[in-house]
Amino acid sequence: KLKMLTNISNVLRACAQRNVAAVVMSARTYADFTPEATFEIKKCDTFKLDEAPATQVVLTRDEGLEYYRIMQTIRRMELKADQLYKQKIIRGFCHLYDGQEACAVGIEASINLSDHLITAYRAHGYTLTRGGTVKEIMAELTGRRGGIAKGKGGSMHMYTKHFYGGNGIVGAQVPLGAGVALACKYQGNNQLCVCLYGDGAANQGQIFETYNMANNRYGMGTSVERAAASTDYFRRGEFIPGLRVDGMDLLCVREATRFAADHCRSGKGPILMELQTYRYHGHSMSDPGVSYRTREEIQEVRSKSDPISMLKDRMLSNNMASIEELKEIDVEVRKEIEDAALFATTDPEPPLEELCNHIYYNDAAVEVRGTNPWAKLKSVS
Amino acid sequence: QGSFIDALVVLQMMVRDALNQAMDEELERDERVFLLGEEVAQYDGAYKVSRGLWKKYGDQRIIDTPISEVRAGLRPICEFMTFNFSMQAIDQVINSAAKTCYMSAGFQAVPIVFRGPNGSSAGVAAQHSQCFAAWYAHCPGLKVVSPWNSEDAKGLLKAAIRDDNPVVFMENELMYGVPFEMSEEALSKDFVLPIGKAKIERPGNHVTLVSHSRCVGHCLDAAAVLAKEGIECEVINLRSIRPMDTDAIEASVMKTNHLVTVEGGWPQFGVGAEICAKIMEGPAFNYLDAPVTRVTGVDIPMPYAKILEDNSVPQIKDIIFSIKKTLNV
Predict the structure, then answer these.
(1) Could you give all domains of chain A from N- to C-terminal order, each with its CATH number?
(2) ipTM for the whole predicted complex goes beyond 0.90
(3) What are phi and psi of A153, to 5 degrees?
(4) How far is B202 from chain A (nearest CA, A)?
(5) Which of A51, B107, B109, B302 is most buried, by the most CB atoms less than 10 A from its CB?
């Protein structure tokens, strides 16, 4: 009893000190840790929906640890990429995802690997949640043969099973996502497609063409990831219902995705999710990210709404994990990133003999013209 | 009785029906194949190429829609009402379809066929008359096919549907209603022509004519006229623009020593320009007795008035004239 009272008072003190959501202790404490706790999360704004995602959700200790690990891995991986880019070991484009981890992890928490996902170029986090490894992602960024696309794709073109990239042309992935969802409907496999885009794409014609096709015929799932938006984008799909979700809170994203997935799978058609999220970095490595916002703003989001801190606070204040345990995960993650970075910087570049491979799929070997008429190169599928 | 029925079997089939038969057979053969495009379903297709297919296969497999993309295990046939409209979706054709296999190092295949009428028609003016052979054939990752007759249409379309890569299949509106004889072999469900192989439609010794699509017929007509003057033309039907059967062209040029290319598209950076470059880089160059001649569409947007339009595309007299100039006769 005394232990329980101590825990409750710890929780209350924690609540007073930090800006975390109100907490209700629901499970009994035994042994070391609380196996699960209920949390109250922000209500989603809805559009054309009779119901909304739940505002009281349960998080288990195991789930919490898993989410913490993945989010931390994404965070560290992106920061390492930042470092390697500044060292000129990563070239070209590099769009970083730190700050937005709750979106990738929250979405994946409520779908299956047998579902489908497609996004734009800020894709490293999703490549990981969709089954890629840190090692092969980093080696792709450094353009090595051990990269997830053998060094052929780079930052914007990484693929895994049921993950269709990584797409460089703004907005192009949205009709593609609709096509994937069409395939799901065609095959009757009850799978859905999560299709993500940002504000750049939101104004494009092909987005609205996709809304039109999705709604008229195919009953697909369409989800939206946004940077910090200031207008009501979630109302734009006039005939498609929508949710506006706190994209910095993993539990909100998870619950909203669960709701959206049910909506789609029950045959109600597509649904728009506006995830209000925030990237700490600029648009890409060539954007310092402070010409259109203040450093104070970035700092404020970091201190008040960081997704990883939020999860950590929740778990600690509910005795779902210990500080040491989380630190241990941090150490493990750091090691994984370091090992991956070492591999990414020491793995050799792809062999020149393979330059022309994979132009075609499942095809006989062909000759490819090189830079001059005497350069006859070979391509195999 | 027997021979009467046999005679009926050698039937005449219009290009449009050959295309229809190809799609019908492939829809039946593989349930992952489906057709989408403007007016392909209930309207039976803007040019009736998909007539009857919606009735037979239903909503699931014949879909009326603007352009859509599928990457998750299906094999779509995407019909453009004309290839001029493909420009609205060209980013998807090039950046999402053509390049994906390479970018993913062979992980993600895109087994899609983009088909529809290409090139000039009759009186449809500048925005509806462009030939896109050179544009699409420029891009690695695509296969580009241009059938001429019904046998080409059927055999190459089946090959395109069965190919695991994105294939741009360029038909010709003026050819849809033209009937051609179809051999028994061509009528069978397994009749598939290889992509990348040209066909010698007419053998000859004096000059090689290389062409694709509707112009093949013009070349044959020109050859018939010239034969009366003792000039024997070898007419090659390219069938595939990418990959192109360079070997066939070279072998022919090494025999005839003269080459004339004939196409409906514009001259600059076109199919004929590419053939010239290829010939220069290969063994056939030393066999040329004269520079290669390109016969092409006039380098202008397509005009509307009939007299202007007629004089904007290669006519038989232009081909004959060019051959004689090349042969210096």
Answers:
(1) 1-32 (no CATH), 33-350 (3.40.50.970)
(2) no
(3) -105, -50
(4) 28
(5) B302
